[in-house]
Specification:
single chain; six-stranded mixed β-sheet; 17 strands; about 30% strand
Amino acid sequence: GGRPGPVVALRADMDALPVTERNSLPFASKVRATYNGQDVGLMHACGHDAHVAVLLGVAEILASMKKDLPGTIKFIFQPAEEGVPVGEVGGAKQMIKEGALQNPKADVIFGLHSDPKVEAGTITYRSGPTMAAVNNFRVVIKGKGSHGANPWFSVDPIVVSAQIINNIQTIVSRNLNLTKNPGVVTVGLINGGTRWNIIPEEVVMMGTIRAFSEEDKSMMVSRLKQIITNTCEAAGATAEIQVPYTTDYPSTYNDPELMTKMLPTLEKTIGEKNVIAAPPETGAEDFSFYQKEIPGLFLFFGTMRKGQDPETAAARHTAAFYLEESGMKTGVLTLANLTVDYLFSKK
């Protein structure tokens, strides 16, 4: 800016996903790559390309006002929000480690994410816990193999894995106080066996835990380990449990004081009826690491076609993901006005 003042950080994530795009758009991705040993398509199935475009638009607007603005604006273009390979560090944690919030030190941070289930022209927000904390887990269940015709000679890890999948559902239904916060336990990968008549020696399972407080997440991890260990013991099997495996994010937490302060800016920018309070989101975001360092707001801009039924709109991380580009204008105006109003509020 043209004179001293506060420091505002603005963040956009950039990475794509290993999903083959399936739509008729002229710019549909044709890129392919090898991921986890498989040949896959790559596409922006979560709108991160739009996030970059929005932040570039904000940068252009604010650069044109530079001499009139107090303070400093830091533009953070972040890779690897979707995660990094096992054993590597990346995403927001790496950006923080390498000083993205320092020199000068940021006072607050704002971020946006597209929402394909909400109409373009709207912004949704929540104060306090907004997106879930997440751990992922990997479990190797070790049994004893045999011919499929003689299961009594085996300790069948496939049967044990099925029992575990059922048993861990009670973590949410019986251990979590759902009147306070929601939670999720999902197994998304299970791999065992090579042939229909061979009981394998082991099964690999991977999944995710979602919670809205560190207390709940800790309890859910503890119960996960206990249930897996005890279920295996009852069957004569053993388990190697890794949790967290590659992902361990805190809850995305919108600072209540900052949210109250900036809500009038949202309503002024796009109209009060277009600013919608939202329920908590069980997805996770490594934007939460920035919010562990400084107060921050993470908001959603709608990218669904006007009048479309949300049930028919393709979800994030799917091959048919679609982004109504008019929603990007709302994102640009929102982020630019949040920045300007915050800078001038600290004169």
